[in-house]
């Protein structure tokens, strides 16, 4: 695929990081009737999703829009007759839609070459047609890249060819043309691309907005242009370099989502090409590579889908292989389907990620949803025989009386319409048909076995094993590794937790020998796809792996293909012994040594790697299908190649040899011991790992009785559980569900490794600052080896301390150490700038480099220097300063309010964090101080996020990720949810609170765009800030966020983070802010979007120099979190998560809080000192104000003559790169975003209508039409109510608004008390989001004839984060209904999967079926469900009972009566009519902790206590013994 409009890789920008999302849909006539009306309706559908697409700096250039239809035979016959082309009957010719070069000479050459290829392939060239267009309305950017649009008509060379054979031949013509013509065209600056080439379908698409497509291609307005089906797509690209080619539809597919495992999928597909028999395809050279790696993830998926389809699979079968539903943990799935999935999992790994996909071959059209249901897809079936599926409902006008059924795609499910059979085929039927095509159970038995079925092997106890201590030292073990990582895993079965981020040097900057794993940083999901919760949503995850020869895609039952099924990638010594002993025709293991002579250094290591590759090739040719890499045998002379280097090097070698799928790679190593180590090994191709030295270490600890009474066997099992569980968290934070998909997916960035090493051994991994080569890798290995075997080495009798996480005098260096902490605290307490400069000088000491910025130096020019008096004042500069997001709950109220007071005095901003805020703080103190946090954070938990909270913000921050643990959620356990915290968060004291890993209303970039719009509606005066964490590709994400209309973008560094997080995440996830900030700034400038947004950064900013460098790399606002805490007393004990902070900051313990001695003045002093130091630097560089300084990286340079043996290999030239931009392109924020609030229904009509109610509480009743484009209806009105009346709102039903039609997203979001919104029709996703006391009613129109209790009426994620109010839904809701509900009472007639997830309060009455995984993470509130099937219940935190008391049945009856009155629900009427019989059929679901607290409140009431006193009593009864420790 040409990337005709993408800039070349430059600086930190790389076009490979582009992401996209979209609105998609299709319309099909079930009976196959073709009409122009269907095409016109499909274009209406597309245009009504315009808000899901995007455009960049050029408002008239869209990110892409397109349509796929059946070949319009009558239309083409008419057009071709005019051109003198005689077309044969339909199906006997194909049409190639071609994007050709715009200039005549090259285009004619391209056309001639295509004709020659058609003839060479034995087919007939019938003629060419130029596609008529009208380009008058498209943007300048689109025009500049616009190709010429021509169509070629190709007739069958053999009239007897079948339809599939002819499609295969057209595929052949296209592939050959691409191989021959694309390179020639690119050399000459031209483009060449076939959007489609088929006898059945054709695609019209381009770099257009949804509204431009219809009038751009004139064919689409011709009434003879008919089709019986149409698929449409509107694209939202994260940058403004979308291309004509990258628009959808693809050749078979439309896709709203992201393939998170794409790098691995492509590698595996390339690897298996060598083993695929081409009996259907004439020659490998012609058809391979299967996947065009220059395309987007969607087009690469389409390439693979096309290949499988043309190889003889049906489209549904191919989709089932590539996007399997979660099958391993589904007890209700049939054996035949499980066998199908098990066998196809053997053949090919899942293409994993959030996705709604439509697909068609021209006869069938279908759709499938990812296994976790992370994209919306709703559909209508109409009485006239059409199916309309789309990302939203209401996109095509259909009268209520014409609707037969309203449905939704469910997680992992498929919808199929076959126009030849003239019917809809349900998911279960499709899949059972596919599963019955082959005897899959027999194939599983023939090709797969389990570890348990293998005979026992010989005991693995090497005769000459070195003493345990020597082995540990040779493999780099430290005291910290054992005490802080291995021991907690062995004792408690959990990955260990740390706090306060990390301030030790990057691996490439450390003087000490670092494990190679530490040079790789985990990537994670943010914005363009969500992380998932592998704990609460475990039903969709899988830890299983396979080792062996994984088959031939084109000949599945091929002889000699066998594999072993593993429960997880971690093997015990006994399991490894079984594998090591294999030597049969089916399964044969060959052991390959990883040892090399240590004195041979890098040369010896490289020779050993080459030997390893040769021996692997030989073993494979001799029939081995398991290669066991072993580093046993290390001694004084022999060291082991770093395991990650060996595994990844061999993996990529075998991919290049196209033999990788013929073997499994098993590692027997003393090196891996942490979760991150295992993740890196699996991510770079290792199938299974035996960490034998870790197990030996655990046995040693047990023998010394150091495992708190846990025996060795249990400790090893605990360790394996913790390791696998930790791995699952790592892969799910990238949005990946299965270990099989994560395997080989390379979800990492190298930080501090040379491109030479990466290209050879870690191919395809980003490495942007260069770094160590083989010489340094060998040197670090040698240093570890010498610490074990050189008698003169320090600590020869003990392990080294380590000290990566916690400062130790003998351990790793830290930025925060006793000296720097003392100097800073003295400076701020005394107000002594000279003392501060001593602190600053120690941090900025040239002798040490802990961070990348310390490798940079200023480039002052004496001629540019100005007097400091001419520089912007410190009082002005500090207005750009902010304190980090630290919630009340994570820190004490005293600390939280101290920060707020200080920042308000300065005119800067403090951040509430995600724990809400007590409304009393919105009022000024008597002395004029304000405790109000100017920034109100909206995080995934939505704690305390109400309309009143939002209107009291100057800035609203959407936390997409957190520096210390991006891609993860959080948890405040019950003992820490003190009554005061619970009140602020809108929850119950003593009940644990969970923040989900994702925002459940942000599964994609267009979802973020919607939340930004929602929040802007909730407070029109506030800036909307989106917090990202630095990682490879954050620049293109930032560009997407700018296009989504954020006002501020925060790029957070990996090293920040004041809260608790797994140590795996603290050290190994994300990147330094220097890289993320530079990439974001450069990409925004390239996109001409930089002037639309403010860019902020944070992450261990300590000094004015740090801030100055951040500014010159592109930031104009700056955040501080750790250092302000140090200023008010923090001494970096790093026990924040234990509630034992000795200085009263990170604790809620009343006794410890008395130790808090911080004052606002200390924070004020610190901020002013930083600003003064910054002014000194500005004066030297000649900058009069901050705006002049933003992005001026030309005033920085790499330090010269760096002596450090590793640091000198780093190259920061890409960080300092200045992208070219025209003089009129802004490099700092000068333009306000246009949020288009004036287009909302509230602003167009409603606000004027309800003015009397807001002004004087007069009752208002009104009725209005509504459409899907009317989003966030009622929210602006609600914000005006909250501004005037506070949290109390208006009297109930003061404002009563009724709407008729299909409501857009976020209907009734944040609506406060006093507002009642009634909808006659249906609603899209996020109805009632953040409901703040209002009432929402949804009922079917009177004209509708369908049964509401059987139809989908509202979309996914209803009432997310709702805090109070009522809702009545006359129909079924989608997935994740009432997720994080903390106070709404609602009635609904059925829901999808993951209902009431993370719920903490409120009452949910469900009078219909629930989906799977109900009540996952539910810690509060109550659900009552009619005829509940407990197989759908997640029992981790809740109990189910039918034993209801009279008060509970009265509550159910009252809610049903209200539901019947408000909605006219027939089902409610039937239940109430038979109440005596029905009341016993309800099941109550309640959290165990919540029940305990309620019981104790009742007990307190019996003692005469009420309100807060009763709550305190209940909390103390439950947790006092725990909370005081």
Automatic annotation (TrEMBL):
Q: Which cofactor does it need?
A: FMN; FAD; [3Fe-4S] cluster
Coiled coil residues, start to end: 595-622
Q: Where is this region: Disordered?
A: 910-929
> What Pfam family is a match, any one?
Glu_syn_central
Where is each Glutamine amidotransferase type-2 domain found?
22-420
- Return the SUPFAM superfamilies for the record: Alpha subunit of glutamate synthase, C-terminal domain, FMN-linked oxidoreductases, N-terminal nucleophile aminohydrolases (Ntn hydrolases)
Write the signal peptide boundaries.
none
Provide this UniProt record's keywords sorted from A to Z.
Answer: 3Fe-4S, Amino-acid biosynthesis, Coiled coil, FAD, Flavoprotein, FMN, Glutamate biosynthesis, Glutamine amidotransferase, Iron, Iron-sulfur, Metal-binding, Oxidoreductase
Q: In which pathway does it act?
A: Amino-acid biosynthesis
Q: Which GO terms describe its molecular function?
A: 3 iron, 4 sulfur cluster binding; glutamate synthase activity; metal ion binding
What processes in GO biological process is this protein linked to?
A: ammonia assimilation cycle; glutamate biosynthetic process
InterPro entries referenced in this protein's UniProt entry, alphabetically: Aldolase_TIM (IPR013785), ET-N_metabolism_enzyme (IPR050711), GATase_2_dom (IPR017932), Glu_synth_asu_C (IPR002489), Glu_synth_asu_C_sf (IPR036485), Glu_synth_centr_N (IPR006982), Glu_synthdom (IPR002932), Ntn_hydrolases_N (IPR029055)
Q: Return the similarity comment.
A: Belongs to the glutamate synthase family.
Q: What is this protein called?
A: Gxgxg motif
Q: Which organism is it from?
A: Trichococcus palustris
């Amino acid at each position: 695929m040409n990337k005709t409009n993408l800039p070349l890789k430059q600086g930190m920008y790389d076009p490979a990081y582009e992401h996209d999302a979209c609105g998609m849909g299709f319309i099909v006539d079930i009976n196959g009737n073709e009409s122009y009306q269907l095409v016109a309706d499909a274009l209406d559908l597309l245009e009504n999703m315009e808000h899901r697409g995007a455009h960049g700096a050029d408002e008239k250039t869209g990110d892409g829009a397109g349509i796929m239809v059946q070949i319009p035979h009558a239309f083409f016959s008419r057009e071709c007759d005019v051109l003198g082309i005689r077309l044969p009957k339909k199906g006997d010719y194909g049409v190639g839609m071609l994007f050709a070069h715009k200039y005549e000479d090259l285009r004619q050459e391209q056309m001639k070459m295509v004709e020659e290829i058609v003839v060479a392939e034995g087919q007939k060239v019938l003629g060419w047609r130029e596609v008529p267009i009208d380009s008058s309305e498209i943007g300048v950017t689109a025009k500049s890249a616009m190709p010429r649009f021509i169509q070629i008509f190709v007739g069958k060379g053999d009239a007897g060819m079948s339809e599939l054979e002819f499609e295969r031949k057209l595929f052949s013509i296209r592939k050959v043309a691409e191989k021959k013509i694309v390179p020639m065209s690119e050399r000459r600056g031209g483009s060449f691309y076939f959007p489609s080439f088929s006898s059945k379908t054709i695609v019209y698409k381009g770099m257009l907005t949804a509204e431009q497509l219809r009038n751009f291609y004139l064919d689409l307005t011709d009434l003879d242009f008919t089709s019986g089906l149409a698929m449409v797509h509107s694209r939202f690209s994260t940058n403004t370099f979308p291309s004509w080619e990258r628009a959808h539809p693809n050749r078979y597919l439309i896709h709203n989502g992201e393939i998170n495992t794409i790098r691995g999928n492509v590698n595996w597909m390339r690897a298996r090409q060598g083993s695929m028999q081409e009996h259907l395809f004439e020659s490998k050279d012609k058809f391979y590579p299967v996947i065009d790696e220059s395309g987007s993830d969607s087009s690469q998926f389409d390439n693979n889908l096309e290949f499988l389809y043309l190889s003889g699979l049906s489209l549904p079968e191919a989709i089932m292989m590539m996007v399997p539903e979660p099958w391993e943990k589904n007890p209700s799935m049939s054996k035949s389907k499980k066998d199908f999935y098990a066998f196809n999992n053997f053949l090919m790994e899942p293409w994993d990620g959030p996705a709604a996909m439509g697909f068609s071959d021209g006869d069938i059209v279908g759709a499938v949803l990812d296994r976790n249901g992370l994209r919306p897809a709703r559909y209508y079936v109409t009485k006239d025989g059409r199916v309309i599926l789309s990302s939203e409902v209401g996109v095509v006008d259909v009268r209520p009386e014409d609707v037969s059924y309203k449905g939704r795609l469910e997680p992992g499910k498929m919808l199929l319409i076959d126009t030849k059979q003239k019917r809809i085929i349900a998911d279960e039927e499709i899949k059972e048909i596919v599963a019955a095509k082959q005897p899959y159970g027999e194939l599983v038995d023939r090709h797969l076995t389990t570890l348990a079925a293998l005979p026992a092997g010989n005991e693995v106890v090497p005769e000459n094993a070195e003493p345990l201590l020597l082995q540990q030292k040779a493999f780099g073990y430290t005291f910290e590794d054992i005490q802080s990582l291995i021991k907690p895993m062995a004792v408690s079965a959990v990955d260990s937790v740390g706090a306060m981020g990390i301030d030790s040097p990057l691996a490439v900057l450390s003087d000490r020998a670092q494990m190679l794993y530490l040079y790789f940083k985990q990537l994670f999901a943010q914005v363009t796809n969500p992380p998932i919760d592998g704990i609460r949503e475990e039903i969709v995850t899988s830890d299983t792996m396979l080792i062996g020869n994984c088959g031939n895609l084109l000949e599945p039952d091929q002889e000699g293909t066998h594999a072993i099924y593993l429960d997880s990638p971690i093997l015990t010594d006994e399991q490894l012994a079984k594998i090591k002993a294999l030597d049969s025709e089916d399964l044969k293991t060959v052991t390959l040594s990883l040892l090399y002579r240590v004195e041979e250094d890098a040369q010896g290591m490289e020779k050993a790697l080459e030997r390893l590759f040769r021996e692997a090739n030989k073993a494979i040719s001799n029939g081995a299908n398991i290669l066991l890499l072993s580093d046993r045998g290390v001694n004084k002379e022999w060291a082991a190649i770093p395991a990650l280097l060996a595994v990844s090097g061999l993996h990529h070698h075998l991919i290049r040899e196209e033999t990788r799928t013929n073997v499994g790679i098993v590692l027997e190593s003393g090196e891996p011991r942490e979760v991150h180590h295992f993740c890196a090994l699996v991510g770079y191709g290792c199938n299974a790992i035996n960490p034998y030295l870790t197990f030996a270490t655990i046995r040693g600890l047990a023998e010394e009785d150091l495992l708190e009474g846990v025996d060795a066997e249990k400790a090893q099992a605990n360790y394996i559980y913790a390791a696998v569980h930790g791995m699952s968290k790592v892969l799910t934070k990238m949005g990946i569900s299965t270990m099989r998909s994560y395997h080989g997916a390379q979800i990492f960035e190298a930080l501090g490794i040379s491109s030479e090493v990466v290209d050879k051994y870690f191919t395809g991994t980003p490495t942007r600052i260069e770094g160590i080569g083989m010489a340094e890798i060998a040197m670090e290995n040698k240093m570890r080896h010498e610490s074990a075997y050189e008698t003169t080495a320090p600590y020869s009798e003990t392990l080294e301390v380590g000290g990566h996480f916690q400062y130790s005098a003998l351990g790793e260096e830290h930025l925060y150490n006793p000296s720097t902490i003392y100097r800073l605290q003295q400076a701020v307490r005394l107000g002594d700038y000279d003392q501060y400069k001593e602190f600053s000088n120690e941090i900025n000491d040239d002798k040490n480099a802990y961070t990348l910025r310390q490798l940079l130096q200023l480039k002052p020019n004496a001629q540019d220097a100005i007097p400091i008096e001419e520089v912007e004042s410190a009082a002005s500069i500090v207005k750009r300063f902010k304190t980090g997001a630290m919630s009340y709950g994570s820190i004490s109220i005293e600390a939280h309010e101290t920060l707020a007071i200080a920042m308000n005095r300065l005119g800067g901003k403090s951040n509430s964090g995600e724990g809400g805020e007590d409304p009393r703080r919105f009022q000024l103190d008597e002395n004029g101080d304000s405790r109000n946090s100017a920034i109100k954070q909206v995080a995934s938990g939505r704690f305390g996020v109400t309309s009143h909270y939002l209107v009291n913000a100057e800035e609203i921050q959407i936390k997409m990720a957190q520096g210390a643990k991006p891609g993860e959620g959080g948890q405040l356990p019950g003992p820490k949810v003190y009554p005061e915290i619970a009140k602020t968060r809108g929850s119950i004291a003593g009940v644990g609170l969970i923040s989900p890993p994702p925002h459940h209303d942000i599964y994609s970039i267009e979802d973020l765009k919607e939340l930004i719009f929602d929040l802007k509606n909730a407070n029109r005066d506030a800036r909307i800030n989106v917090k990202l964490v630095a990682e490879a590709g954050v620049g293109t994400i930032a560009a997407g966020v700018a296009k989504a209309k954020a006002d501020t973008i925060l790029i957070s560094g990996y090293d920040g983070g004041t809260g608790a997080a797994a140590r795996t995440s603290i050290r190994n996830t994300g990147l330094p802010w220097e890289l993320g900030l530079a990439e974001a700034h450069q990409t925004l400038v390239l996109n001409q979007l930089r002037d639309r947004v403010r860019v902020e950064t944070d992450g261990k900013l300590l000094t004015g120099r740090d801030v100055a460098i951040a500014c010159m790399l592109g930031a104009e606002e700056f955040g501080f979190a750790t250092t302000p805490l140090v200023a008010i007393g923090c001494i970096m004990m790093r026990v924040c998560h234990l509630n034992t902070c000795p200085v009263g900051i990170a604790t809620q313990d009343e006794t410890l809080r008395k130790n808090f001695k911080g004052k606002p003045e200390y924070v004020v002093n610190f901020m002013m000192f930083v600003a003064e130091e910054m002014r000194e630097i500005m004066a030297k560089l000649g900058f009069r104000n901050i705006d002049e300084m933003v992005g001026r990286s030309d005033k920085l340079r790499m330090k010269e003559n760096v002596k450090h043996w590793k640091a000198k290999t780093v190259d920061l030239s890409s960080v300092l790169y200045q992208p070219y931009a025209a003089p009129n392109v802004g490099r700092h924020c000068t333009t306000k975003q246009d949020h288009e609030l004036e287009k909302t229904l509230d602003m167009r009509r409603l606000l004027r209508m309800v003015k009397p109610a807001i002004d004087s509480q007069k009752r208002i009743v009104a009725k209005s039409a509504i459409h899907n484009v009317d989003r966030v209806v009622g929210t602006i009105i609600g914000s005006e109510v909250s501004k005037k009346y506070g949290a109390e709102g208006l009297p109930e039903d003061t404002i009563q608004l009724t709407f008729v039609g299909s409501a857009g997203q976020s209907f009734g979001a944040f609506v406060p008390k006093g507002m009642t919104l009634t909808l006659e029709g249906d609603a899209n996703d996020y109805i009632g989001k953040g409901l703040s006391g209002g009432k929402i009613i949804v009922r079917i129109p009177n004209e509708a004839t369908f049964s509401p209790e059987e139809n989908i009426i509202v979309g996914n994620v209803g009432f997310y984060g709702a805090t109070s109010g009522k809702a009545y839904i006359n129909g079924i809701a989608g997935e994740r209904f009432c997720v994080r509900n903390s106070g709404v009472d609602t009635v609904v007639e059925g829901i999808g999967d993951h209902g009431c997830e993370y719920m903490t309060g409120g009452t949910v009455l469900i009078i219909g079926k629930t989906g799977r995984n109900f009540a996952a993470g539910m810690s509060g509130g109550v659900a009552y469900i009619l005829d509940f099937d407990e197989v759908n219940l997640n029992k981790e935190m809740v109990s189910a009972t039918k034993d209801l008391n009279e008060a509970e049945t009265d509550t159910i009856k009252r809610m049903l009566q209200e539901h019947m009155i408000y909605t006219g629900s027939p089902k409610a009427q039937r239940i109430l009519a038979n109440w005596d019989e029905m009341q016993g059929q309800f099941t109550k679901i309640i959290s165990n902790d919540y029940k305990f607290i309620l019981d104790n409140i009742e007990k307190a009431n019996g003692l005469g206590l009420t309100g807060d006193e009763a709550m305190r009593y209940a909390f103390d009864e439950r947790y006092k013994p725990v909370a005081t420790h």
